Predict the structure.
Amino acid sequence: MLIAGGTVMDQGGSRRADVLVKGEVVAEVGEGRALRAPAGADVLDASGCLVAPGLVDVHAHLREPGAEEAESIETGARAAALGGYTAVVAMPNTSPPADSAAVVRQVLQLAKGACCDVRPAGTITLGREGRVLSPMAELAALGVTLFTDDGTGVQDPGLMRRAMEYVSVLGGVIADHCEDASLVGAGVVNEGAMSSALGLPGRPAVAEEVMVLRDLALARLTGARLHLLHLSAAASVAAVRAAKAAGAQVSAEATPHHLALTQDWLASYSTAFKVNPPLRTSADLMALREGVADGTIDVIATDHAPHPPEAKDTSMCEAAPGMVGLETALAVALTVLLDPPGLLDPPGLLDPPGFLEPPGSLHPGSSLVRGPQASEGQWTGLPLERLLAAMSWVPAKIAGLSGLHGGPVAPGAPANLCVVDPARKWVVRPEKLASRSHNTPFAGQELTGKVRHTLLAGEPVVVGEEAQR
């Protein structure tokens, strides 16, 4: 198969090159010259496109086993491939949770034949209950490298210390959902002006900050590799920056929705914008963007969280938190992080007395525009190579998948690739998403950037923006 007419971008930079794939590997890269397709070879058009290592998501909820009405491994993998992902790490908060070898084996079996490489994470504690450590050695023997109780943070610092010590011996990574439950309480949106205006219980940023500081201290004590999930607060970014400067083995992620949306979107009172941790202020958003730009935040991860309609079509307090993101993540990142950068324009804003304007509504074809004036002059855009690094080769390294995913695009390397049209504009239609659930906050938004083709082990699983399985 010949990928013709594109610009290759990987760890080595960018260059005009055709890419010839034979079997499961890259056979030849014709830098600065066109390659001739061998007799009988298929040709994938990459004109005007980037040819990059497949994206890697270290944080996706595929729901199977136990919540197949929201998502299955098959449908989640298809959504991932359409989004340019060749590998995803499936979070363990399934039912039953991935706290045993039996459940991990089940996920691995279900993932066979999927159009994306699905790697299960294991829990830190049995049942994700925060009391007893899971059999980490058994899970690691099956290939688990990431351990997390995502959805809830490990509240007991002594237990977290022991978890870090065990995982260090196993060569794995502890990934924590950093929120102190005693500070979160019943909070559902960011604590502050928005929670007061909406009359909803707040979820304070300090609940994240104190657990980030705790985990950083424990990682320093134990020497463990620590990955901080879905950071949302400026203080958390500052803490990670300081810890990295001091030599800590820590990595961190932010989600596309935390990099694109602020709490102002909650003015619409739509549960599509409810997520944990919550959308926060413009200052928090800008701190996250700056963290991605300077490498404090290593990864842009989706936190893909599908829910069936009945879980979202209820009150804000009762609605399930989370949003789908595998198919939109790259496009959202390309739209809001590159030049010209901007915030999404919220559908309703607080007016000076603190009352809400009638909630606006997103409409098909609405555009992403620059948001509040607080962002002016603070953001100059992210280099495209840094964006791809945060979504491909850096997460591949964290997940222990380097050598299989994340490139480079070079002869002999596995042909796990995506071809992206960075100028392609498209409107997000929830009903057209491959995910079994359609709870996206970007419904009706026009995004820029679309995956044209995806190859998994040399097989085209997406061709011309269409899934092949």
The domain at 54-406+424-446 is CATH 3.20.20.140 (TIM Barrel). The CA atoms of residues 162 and 466 lie 46 Å apart.
